[in-house]
Design goal:
This protein is α/β, with parallel strands linked by helices. About 35% of the residues lie in helices and about 10% in strands. It has helices at about 15-35, 45-50, 65-70, 80-90, 100-105, 125-140, 160-165, 175-180, 250-265, 280-285, 300-305, 320-330, 345-350, 380-395, 410-420, and strands at about 5-10, 40, 60-65, 110, 140-150, 170, 185, 235-240, 270-275, 295, 315, 330-335, 360. A seven-stranded parallel β-sheet has the order 3-2-1-4-5-6-7, with helices on both faces. Helix 1 links the parallel strand 1 (about 5-10) and strand 2 (about 40). The longest helix has 17 residues, at about 15-35.
Length: about 425
């Protein structure tokens, strides 16, 4: 590894359960293998991220420097935005950004962690990559991108196949994205933390407690907690209202209602999970006659108490990471694609790994599969593969008694800053 802090970039802090799960997985991994390294997480909401991940890594810090820079250029045409971001990173010249950009220059590694935010759905997010490349040209930092959801492909001044040119390591989580950008096909970054939230079962078939996602060890308490009655074999529902084709909402709720009625008739409890506060509540309000308020599990509960996973559960969800984790635990389900060209690609990538789930797209309304697919049986190999990638990128360096001195490039650019006219 090149000397210097590790600088992670990801869409954390909003919050969104899947994005926060990925960030926590990387921070926990780095706490195990690089406990003495300074780690920055650059994300849209660093204040909330500080709360979510406060115990995940002993030297973690949080900022929104590059996200703010990209946001401030999003109103421009793609070519102008790319040029403006590059100029700001390279030339400095404003107290609004300079100290944060100097911190990026200090980093030995710039790492774009996983998620589906570099694509045509969020076209301005390509600016994150431009900022990384401009910084690397000055500092020589390693450039990494893992578990990326890259479809639909970006368009703009840089072709998709050239966007990650100069990166040391890039993986896409679906085959189509890997081919479109000419990068390696890999796994979603959630697999890095999946084994920490997938339950084991004793001989009687009782699931053990699921740890919280936000702590360094992956466990919220020193001792395991028992799952509340009804959750281990219940039906779990989550239908989003953000980033959707609005015409898909009514059919999605109809599928959820049908399965909720069927589950109740079978004597199973029905629960509603919230990945994004507010955005996932709207559908629950239309299903509240079937699901009591006590069975609504908000994001805060899932984060602090853990996602209650079990192989005996069934799922109806539009949220990609609930599909990934629910299927990895051995649950059967129906995944609902709420945005053609974006969410169908996401869900199909997990179906390709063997989730066995039915996919509802357009106006079709598939029934609940009788059983899950082989994803759970192959989970250990998938997790091992993702961990191997993580260890390759960050070789283990045991903790030492001496705190390392942070590396800084600030003195090298101080004179240049003083000569510039700030604007």
């Amino acid at each position: 590894m090149r000397p210097g802090p590790i600088y992670l970039i990801g869409p954390s802090g909003n919050p969104n359960y899947g994005d926060e799960f990925i960030a926590a997985a990387w921070l926990r991994h780095l706490a195990r293998v690089r406990p003495d390294d300074d780690v920055w997480l650059d994300c849209p909401q660093p204040g909330h991220a500080q709360i979510l991940f406060r115990d995940a890594h002993p030297r973690a810090r949080f900022t929104n420097t590059v996200w703010r820079l990209v946001h401030d250029h999003q109103h421009l045409p793609a070519e102008e935005a790319a040029a403006g971001i590059t100029e700001r990173v390279t030339g400095l010249g404003t107290p609004t950004y300079d100290l944060g950009l100097l911190t990026m220059r200090d980093a030995g590694t710039l790492h774009l962690i996983g998620g589906g935010y570099i694509n045509a759905t969020w076209r301005h997010h390509a600016g994150l990559v431009h900022a990384m490349k401009a910084t690397q040209a000055l500092s020589g930092a390693r450039l990494l991108a893992t578990g990326q959801g890259l479809l639909p492909a970006v368009t703009g001044p840089v072709a998709a196949k050239d966007l990650f040119h100069g990166f040391d390591h890039v993986t896409a989580r679906d085959q189509g994205g890997a081919e479109a950008y000419g990068v390696d096909f890999g796994l979603d970054d959630a697999f890095l933390g999946a084994s920490e939230v997938i339950p084991t079962a004793d001989d009687a078939g009782t699931s053990h407690a699921i740890p919280s996602a936000g702590t360094a060890s992956g466990t919220a308490d020193a001792e395991a907690r028992s799952e509340p009655d009804g959750r281990s074999d219940g039906l779990f529902i989550c239908i989003q209202s953000d980033t959707v084709d609005r015409s898909r909402i009514a059919p999605a709720i109809a599928i959820a209602r049908r399965e909720a009625i069927r589950a109740t008739e079978q004597g199973r409890e029905v629960f509603y999970l919230e990945a994004i506060p507010g955005a996932d509540r709207a559908a629950y309000d239309q299903l509240a006659d079937l699901i009591p308020e006590t069975n609504f599990l908000p994001f805060a509960t899932l984060w602090t108490e853990g996602l209650p996973l079990s192989p005996r559960q069934c799922w109806v969800t539009s949220r990609f990471h609930f599909h990934l984790l629910g299927a990895a635990a051995g649950g059967a389900g129906i995944a609902i694609a709420m945005n053609p060209g974006y969410y169908d690609v996401k869900h199909e990538s997990i179906i390709a790994l063997g989730s066995g789930w039915a996919l509802a797209s357009d106006d079709d309304a598939p029934t609940m599969p009788v059983s899950a697919g082989p994803l759970n049986a192959g989970l250990a190999d998938l997790v091992a593969g993702k961990r191997a990638e993580a260890f390759e990128l960050y070789p283990e360096a045991p903790a030492t008694e001496e705190t390392p001195r942070p590396r800084s490039l600030t003195s090298q650019v101080g004179d240049a800053l003083r000569r510039r006219r700030f604007r």
